[in-house]
Amino acid sequence: MKERIYMYYTNDLHSNFKQWPRVAGYFKNEKAKREAEHQSCWIIDIGDHLDRVHPIAEAFKGKANVQLMNDAGYDIVTLGNNEGITLAHEDLFHLYDKANFQVVCSNLKSMRSLEPEWLQPTVHLQSVKGVKIGVIGLTAPFNAFYNLLDWHVEAPFHTLEKYINELEQVSDIIILLSHLGLNEDQEIARRFSAIDVIIGGHTHHLLRRGEEINNTIITAAGKHCSFVGEVILTWDHDLNKLVNKEAYATDITHYSNDLQAEQSLLVLNKEADRLLGDPIIHMENPIEVKWFQHTEIMQKLTDTLKNWTNADCAMLNAGLLMDQLGAGDVTFKDIHRICPHPINPCIVQLSGDELLKVIRASFTKEFTELKLRGFGFRGEVLGRMIFSGLTVKTLTRSNGEEYVEKVTFQGEELVKDNIYRVATADTFTFGRLLPEIAKSSTKQFFLPEFIRDLLAYTLVQNFA
Question: Boundaries of each Calcineurin-like phosphoesterase domain copy (predicted)?
Answer without folding.
Answer: 10-205
